[in-house]
Amino acid sequence: MLFRSKLNPQFETFDAEKFDKQLLVSKHLCNILYSPPKLSEKRISGITFENVSFSKTFINKSTFNECIFKDCLFIGTEFQSVDFHGCYFENCNFFKAKLSSVYAKPSQFRKAITDTQFSNIAIHLYQQLRENYYQGSQVEFKNEAEYYFCLWKRKNNFVQAKRKNIRAYKFLPNHIISWLYWITLGYGYKLLNLVVTTFIIVICLISANYIFADLLFATPGHKSIIKTTYFTITTMATLGASGYTPNTDMGYLFVILNVLTGVSIFSATINSIFKKVIR
Fold it and tell me: How many CA atoms lie within 13 A of 132 on its CB side?
């Protein structure tokens, strides 16, 4: 879908009075240029705004409930003391928009910008949301805004590198590392990513330890999943698996791998908890 910087040619200009009247008779406002410089002290519910421009408008002390903003322009718009409850933004332009004392879940803006070519605008939007949440002490939204900011920052770094014709070997390594950090740990802000990644790693290590058990233990005896799980978990926790002694250099390498993996997962967990709770 085309990312807009201006309205469709068939738009109609509304002043404040005409805008208020239209809100009373219609639930779908389309192809409108809101011309007044200010929109203040409004409570708007259940309205779909499509191809509507609020560019360079000061929106103040207003509440929007269950509203949809589709293909709307907020270029240079300033939001102050505005609440968005259950709203949805799709393909909207927030170029140089400013947000202050705004209540809105970051997830409401997930589809506001989807084209990576405009990732710089997405970074600006989530930067504004981050600062807004920190200033307003909206703890419940801080981490989510940080997550989307990091996500779009990675995309923007890639776009900028391509535009500047930077050689792949100079930017791809960092890009791949950032991508892996996103997939596995959600940039440290998504505990679910950490849980899933930890589960997969533990399963892989248990499988590897079971398959190569004869190389790991001096007296392997009868192999079993329970014994292998015990060995894997205790070595990952750096507690040491009592009664199990590596038999070969390969066995020692497996133990080292288990310990390093456990330490890494523990560090990632502490980092995620720190970001999730303490900050």
Answer: 25
What is the DSSP code string of 132-154? HHHHHT-HHHHHHHHHHHHHHHH
Dihedral pair phi/psi, residue 197, rounded to 5°: -60, -45
Q: What does the alpha-carbon distance between residue 226 and residue 228 come to, in Å, rounded to a whole number?
A: 5
pLDDT tens, position by position, 184-193: 888 888 878 8
pLDDT digits (tens, 9 = 90+) for 11-67: 899 999 999 999 999 999 999 999 999 999 999 999 999 999 999 999 999 999 999
Instruction: Please spell the DSSP secondary structure of 205-236, one letter per residue.
Output: HHHHHHHTHHHH-SS--S--HHHHHHHHHHHH
Structure tokens that stand for 186 in this block = 């959600």
Q: What is the pTM of this model?
A: 0.79
- The first and second tokens of residue 247, run together, are 């038999």
